[in-house]
Structures are given as structure tokens and as C-alpha cells.
Amino acid sequence: MARAVSFTDCTTFLRGEGHDQLRNPTAARCLALQRSRRSAAAQVVALKKPSGTGAERASIVKPKTRRGDIVAKAGRRAYSTPRPLESYDDLLARYARLQNGSDIRGVALDGVEGEPVTISPAEAFFIARGFAEWIVKDRESGRGVKVSVGRDPRLSGKAIVTAILAGLTSKGITAVDMGLATTPACFMSTISEGYEYDGSMMCTASHLPWNRNGIKFFTPKGGLKKADIAFILQAAATNANQYGASWFLMRNMSLRASVDFLPVYAASLRELIQKGVNHPEHYGAPLKGLKVVVDAGNGSGGFFASMVLEPLGADTSGSQFLDPDGNFPNHVPNPEDAEAMAMTVAAVRSAGADLGVVFDTDVDRSGMVDSSGLEINKNRLIALLAAVTLAEHPGTTIVTDSVTNAGLKEFIAARGGKHFRYMRGYQNVISKGVELNEEGVETHLMIETSGHGAMKENFYLDDGAYLAVKIIIAFMRARLEGSPGLQGLLEGYSEGLEEREYRLGLPRDCFKAEGAKVLAAFHDFIVAQPGWTLEEENHEGWRAIIDEGEGRQGWLLLRQSLHDPLLVLNMESYVEGGCDKIKDTVLKWFEEQVYDVDFSKML
């Protein structure tokens, strides 16, 4: 139900209310700077008179003001990022720096030294206006356009979402607040019958620390591309240049409606499990007798235990960190993180569970643990999902990123599949899968070693809960057939004894050009190195196969980071001490070069 919002409500996002850690929110003072088109003079608008004790009033940070920005307020984790008035070019550059490939990322809260706030509610307000302009650019107006907005439990999430809702509404968009959500649920809200929003925005920074936040964007066609994000940020900068944030907030109007969509999304996952398992005795409770530990890392994934598994008969006792907590107090919510996986392994063993599932913050990635405590993430997760996919779609192509190991390619080939090893960046991997299907190359699985994985059958959506469901179905089908569990599906998969990754710094002002020079020379180095052979099919950097004797082959890959001033060196060896030998060979080459590369981490 839509509700009228008072002026005080409208200004919530400038005050940043909603953070549990902030005390005395009524004592917070919000100043917005309205820039007139006819005058550069700024007007300071005092929205609330401080209240509370004298000590409380003394603790309030007296803010500086700037065009279209917010001010500091009481509390350790307050927005306090005053900047001088900026030229349009500076403003444009500042917004452009928020782009992280196909989404937006930045620092949302103060509290970490050397990390100033870059995405406050004010930036979010104008980014939402930019998205509104993007989504209606081929329409006559925004009338009738609906956009859903979700968030993970980050401390800055409520304030930023309120700003997003305000920004959308200011452009005539019907903005709908989904509250706590997952990234896949946001996309599903654009295609689910009875909802079918024209777009969706998810406020999340995935596994990054508590002070970060960001935004992901969807339409019924899927996630936005890099060029779309660039358009949105340019439009946001233009809006910020024209108006102060108080321009819209001075109005008293109905801002938003709300919807509880997560139960709808959970119901679709339950139905998928029921159909997939097709239990002959209890179809409605196909997980009866299955014990699953869920580790949500205090992100948005706790619903998977209570709303998906338990209603289907599963025992989820022993699950941990299901309650949302934007401090992420227990471990980084990231299935690539060693501590997160180790804690899930310990929980599985302690509970005597059949399976463990670990999610990242916004549930677009997942990892698994089997009953023996075997960690199933990275290459091993790809192998498991490849086995599941190839059983359903024999001969299909599977697209991965560039850093997958040699054993994975052999595993896929042995099961009759084709491995297309592409490049880093989960959107690159997914887009390549879409492209191959459009060209007539059947491609049912696209997955990065980070755990971002999408399936053709699921709208090419990277959905950690969906992938976990596919694995649970395969496990239950194997159990019904009397076959081994997950390790049976992984039979024949092998990994090297050692693996390493080194991140080598490049000069920030010219890292693309300098990196290209290094890679060109590295190609010649590989060709000249005895026992090293260039990988014939390669789409990113240079990858070499390394003869380690007795039929064993290690490998290395040197590539340029997609976004950061870095060269990334990955390697794998099948012999003890092999990675040191590979590293020393490459290090010697770097020491003989004149390129501006910081290889100190290899020393």
C-alpha cells in the first residue's frame, strides 16, 4: 500500500536515519544546499532543531555544506564527507569513479581511515534519477513505469534506499520498496507474474566490508551493461549539477509503495525442488530426512533455511549466521573466503549434516560443503555444476572465466561437454554464453570461479540460491537412486597440488598502456622459455602450459585486471614446490625488464 510521507519522512535519507548504530537520530541536523540556476548562492535549510541533553547536543558534528550533498551527524559511522563546490567536469569524474563494470560501488560510511565516503544518499538520489532517465529514454514519459528497490542488511542500506526511492519518484517513476532482498529476487520481480516491474535496483556491495555499498540494476532482459551504467552516472552528474538534493525534498508528496517479494521468490525455489526431486512417496516434502546447514554470513540469505528448505521437510538445525547484520560480525559473507568456508565445514561436521550451503551477502553466489567436510567452491563448484548440467544437457558448452584449472577442462571433456574458457568478469562470462546461444552453440552453464554462475534455463541470472537448489536436487536424486552423493558427481575431477595468485601493481595514471607493453613482452618470453607452450585457445592475457615431467603439466596466466591498475599472475602446479619454481622463473624475467611494475609481492 502506498502511503503519504511527511516532509520529515522525505528527508530521512539526508539525515541517514535507520542505522541502528547511530544514537539520538532526532538530534541529527540535516542541511541541504539548493543550487539556483540563476544564482550560485547556496541556501542552507535547517530541518530539525537539536534536542536531547547538553552532552548529546555537544556531540553533534557541525557540518559543512556543499551542493547536493548531505552533512555529518552524531555517531561513529556518520556521513561526513564535505567537499568544496565542484566544476561539472569534476562532478562528472567523481560519479564516473563509482562505476565497477556493470554495477556501482563506493564507500557509503565513514569509519575506515583513508576511505572517504563516495556514495552517500545524495549520490544515490541522483543515480536513481539517472536510472529513471535511462529506463524511459525510449518512452514518452515515466508515467506507468514501475521500479522495485531492494537491499542487503548493510548499515547504510536503509538511508540509501530511501534516497533511491525519492530519486525515482522525483522523475515520475512508481517506486516500490522491497525491503530486505537478494539480488536474484530483484531481477525475478521484473518477470514474476503479478509483479512484472519495468526495472529493479538492488542496494548491495556483495562481500565487501560494512562501510561499502553499491547498486545493481535490472530490467526483464537482465542486468545492465557497462555502457548503460556509464549513461546513468553521466545523467546523475548532470542532475547533481543542476539541482541541490533539497530541490525535491522540499515537496510533500507520496513517495513509495512497498511489497514483500522474498516469499514469492522463495516459493518459486520450493516448487523447483519439488518438481526436480519428484519424490515418489512425499512429493510435497521432498527433503524429508535431509539435514542441511546454511551459513548466510549475516547477509540476506537466511531465508533459504526458513522459507525454502524447512517447508520442504529439511532439518536445518546447526545453521548459523542467518540473522541480517550489516556489521558482518562472524566472517566475510563470501564463498571464496577461506574463513567462511572453514566455519561452514565446522558447522556441517558438528551438526552431522548431509550438506552445507554458504552464501555471499546478496545471494548471487554460493558454495557447498559435503558431509565429509569437502569444500566445494571455485573450480570444484564449477565441476559439480558441470556434472549436473551435462547430465541434463549432454554435449553442452560450458563457459568459464580465464583462471580455471587444467583438471576442469579434462573433467568437462570426459563427460562429453565442451569447455569455453573466456575471461574474468562474471558479466563477460554470462554475456559470452548468451552470444554463443544466439549463434546456435548450445550453452547451458556460464560460471566464474568467484561463484557467479548463470544457467540458460534461469534467464541467464547469476543466482546463488538457484545453483544451490540445482545441487540439492541432484543430491536427492542420487540418494533415491542409491548412488553416492556429491563426491560421486565429482568422480574423475582432479586438481594440482599447489596454486598461487600474485597481484602486481601498475602506475595508476597509465596502467592500461603499461600493462599492454608488459603483456606483449611476456608473450615473447613464454615462446622462448624451454618447456613452456602458449595455450592455443586463450581470450585474456597469455596462458602457458608448463611441462613438469612424467606427463604432468602446470600452467600460468598473466592478465591485466579489468578495472584496477594491476597485472594478475595465476599459476598451478602438479608437483611439490612447482609454484615456487614457476614464480622464480617469472620473477627473474621481471627483474631484467624496465617496465614500471611493482612485483614486490613475489619476493
TrEMBL record:
Superkingdom classification of source: Eukaryota
GO molecular function annotations of the record: phosphoglucomutase activity; phosphomannomutase activity
Named cofactor requirement(s): Mg(2+)
GO annotation (BP), single: glucose metabolic process
Reactions performed catalytically: O-phospho-L-seryl-[protein] + alpha-D-glucose 1-phosphate = alpha-D-glucose 1,6-bisphosphate + L-seryl-[protein]; alpha-D-glucose 1-phosphate = alpha-D-glucose 6-phosphate; alpha-D-glucose 1,6-bisphosphate + L-seryl-[protein] = O-phospho-L-seryl-[protein] + alpha-D-glucose 6-phosphate
Enzyme Commission no: 5.4.2.2
EC category: isomerase
One matching Pfam family: PGM_PMM_I
Keyword vocabulary terms for this entry: Carbohydrate metabolism, Glucose metabolism, Phosphoprotein
Domain Alpha-D-phosphohexomutase alpha/beta/alpha: 101-236, 288-373, 378-473
SUPFAM superfamilies named among the record's database cross-references: Phosphoglucomutase, first 3 domains (SSF53738)
Assigned protein family: Belongs to the phosphohexose mutase family.
Name of the molecule in the record: phosphoglucomutase (alpha-D-glucose-1,6-bisphosphate-dependent)
